[in-house]
Design a protein that fits this description.
elongated; 23 helices; 16 strands; Penicillin binding protein transpeptidase fold; alpha+beta; about 625 residues
Length: about 625
């Protein structure tokens, strides 16, 4: 008896509150206005729900859907089929278009049911209240929360049109299996867009949000089907559908066609996530703040802010358009795996379209998994002789104007206790620059760097923006790849594109632009080209690189092409093997080695890096 009496008191309170709210709003200005209070409490501008973001390849095909818990694709009101709206109104809130956010009849009915059950089983909630509960108040079942819900719902109805409210409702409710909103549900359960659904499929999907666990069609198909029939009957009862439409929808065979989350090309997608971080950092000032940071604590704070900003951008719903060439990506992955199979050797590949300055394929390792350590842009390795064209021969030709047939000594060299050796400890006399580079004589390279001057030579490297070259690297061993930290395959491959672009360097990128889901551009790269080599120097370097591939250390990678040029690199004890080279359209870099540097001399004679490079470059001609 006490429970019934309690419910009666609550009922009377709510009825009195509702009547007061509906009839005395014109008197609120005598004190602190309820409207003012509600204006502070409910600000629709703060209503932000996460949306699914997408990464697309160069053909505009989606290669990755980005979301964590919420897979949501928001539809504007005009794109929501009428049957979807009518299904929810008929079953959840038949007085939706006439009430002010709450339905007194629904509340009364719910209170009577709750009184009989001695629990809070029904809430009598309108669509507006359900939206408020979803976005602001949570699902706690208490009368305190219920009263707050009424206030919020009333305020929301004042601020927003019925069309906007139903739009937000349809896009925020949960359809189970990480699908939020009708469009994500349509794509997940039927592999269709919402506007492609039949009436039967719409009613089937709209059955789920009432109790997503109980009506989960993957686990309880019969439950969902039963509620679908009830929903169709309510739509018929409220004249939203005809008898013939009702019967046709009932007889329709509902077949689920589950769409798996699109998540292709993990090598490239991981790279794009990193590049998005760089892009936002540059465009929104985080990069400058990090460079100016004086303490580790400051760096950590700015980095955390950057991470939060990236997450915010992704959750807002974006489309990242990229330069990925799926065919070359597949080929690069397959060749790397094939040539290094059954070994403990890892590798990385970078392919750049040097005419457009775009990364079209990138591989971070064998059988790579998304967000693992990505060797193409995260592995800093000693470049060996692959640095010689950039640090030694290019500056030498640019500074002194020699021809490729000019002589240089490849004999023994010692300075300040540093005495480099040629491969196999071989000794040579005077040789041409062509011979010195194509056979990669170390003593000649160190001698040339000494002639040019270390600082002058390193000035040429500044244009490439190598991330971890430090002032301690300015010493003679750098001529043959002796650096403190090293260079990534992406950095080194990008630097070689100058030889394909008349000596001009421009950072190669994988992101073409970032837009919102409506196609409005949010971010693009705006890079400034830098002239590194004059035209004559560049032409001479192309001749030298060509000879490396036709007659020198790179000839195992040679194939017939309009142009082919490149340079190999080997570090001490064969810990790293490199080949960076170009044809008429692409510059490709290949690195192989062990993650914990150790000798891979056992594969040196078979030159798998050259075989990998050759097969990838052949694929660029198909």
């Amino acid at each position: 008896m006490r429970v019934v009496f309690g419910f009666f008191i609550i009922f009377c309170f709510i009825m009195g509150f509702s009547a007061s709210l509906a009839g005395t709003m014109n008197q609120y200005n005598k004190t602190v206005s309820v409207t003012e209070v509600l204006d502070e409490a409910v600000n629709i501008e703060e209503l932000k729900v996460s949306q699914t973001s997408f990464i697309k390849d160069s053909n505009g095909q989606i290669i990755s859907e980005i979301y964590e818990a919420d897979n949501r694709i928001i539809l504007p009101y005009e794109e929501i089929p009428e049957h979807v709206i009518h299904a929810f109104i008929a079953t959840e809130d038949q007085h939706f278009y006439s009430h002010q956010g709450f339905d007194l009849f629904g509340i009364t009915r719910a209170l009577l049911v709750n009184a009989r059950q001695h629990t809070i089983e029904q809430g009598g909630s309108t669509i507006t209240q359900q939206l408020i509960r979803t976005v602001y108040l949570g699902t706690e079942k208490s009368y305190n929360r219920k009263l707050s819900e009424l206030l919020y719902a009333y305020q929301l109805e004042k601020e927003q049109s019925k069309e906007k409210i139903i739009e937000m409702y349809v896009n925020t409710i949960y359809f189970q299996n990480h699908a939020y909103g009708i469009e994500a549900a349509a794509q997940f359960y039927f592999s269709k867009h919402t506007n492609e659904l039949s009436l039967g499929e719409i009613a089937f999907l709209c059955a789920i949000p009432n109790n997503p666990n109980f009506y989960n069609p993957l686990l309880h198909y019969d439950n969902t089907k039963q509620r679908q029939k009830w929903m169709l009957s309510k739509m018929l009862e409220t004249d939203y559908i005809t008898q013939s439409e009702y019967e046709q929808a009932l007889s329709e065979d509902i077949t689920l066609t589950i769409k798996e989350r699109t998540d292709l090309h993990p090598n490239f997608v991981t790279f794009i996530h990193e590049e998005l971080k760089q892009l936002i950092s540059q465009k929104e000032g985080f990069k400058q703040q990090l460079l100016a940071a004086a303490t580790n604590e400051e760096i950590e704070r700015i980095s955390e802010q950057l991470t939060n900003r990236i997450n915010e951008v992704i959750k807002s719903g974006i489309v990242i358009e990229t330069s990925l060439n799926p065919k070359l990506q597949h080929r690069a992955e397959a060749v790397l795996e094939q040539k290094l199979r059954n070994t403990d050797i890892e590798g990385a590949v970078v392919v750049i379209d040097h005419s457009s300055h775009e990364v079209v394929a990138i591989v971070g390792g064998k059988t790579y998994k998304k967000h693992d350590f990505h060797r193409a842009f995260q592995a800093y390795r000693q470049p060996g002789s692959a640095i010689k064209p950039l640090l030694v021969y290019g500056p030498y030709l640019a500074e002194f104007g020699y021809s490729t047939s000019s002589s240089i000594s490849a004999g023994p060299f010692c300075k300040n206790g540093y005495c480099p050796e040629n491969y196999g400890n071989s000794q040579y006399g005077a040789v041409s620059l062509e011979t010195a580079l194509k056979y990669s004589y170390n003593t000649a390279a160190v001698r040339i760097l000494d002639i040019v001057g270390i600082d002058k030579a390193f000035d040429y490297l500044e244009a490439f923006e190598f991330n971890k070259i430090v002032k301690e690297d300015r010493r003679l061993p750098a001529a043959i790849g002796g650096f403190t930290n090293g260079i990534t395959p992406l950095e080194l491959t990008n630097a070689y594109t100058t030889f394909a672009n008349k000596g001009t360097f421009l950072q190669a990128r994988g992101i073409r632009k970032v837009t919102d889901l409506q196609g409005n551009t949010l971010y693009t790269w705006h890079e400034e080209p830098a002239l590194v080599w004059d035209e004559k120097t560049n032409d001479k370097m192309r001749d030298l690189l060509h000879k490396v591939m036709t007659e020198g250390t790179g000839k195992k990678g040679y194939y017939s092409s309009e142009y082919i040029g490149g340079k190999t690199g080997t570090t001490n004890d064969f810990k790293d093997l490199w080949i960076i080279g170009l044809n008429e359209n692409y510059t490709t870099g290949v690195w192989i080695g062990k993650d914990n540097p150790a000798s891979i001399e056992k594969v040196n004679n078979s030159s798998p890096h050259l075989a990998i490079w050759r097969e990838i470059m052949l694929a660029t001609k198909d």
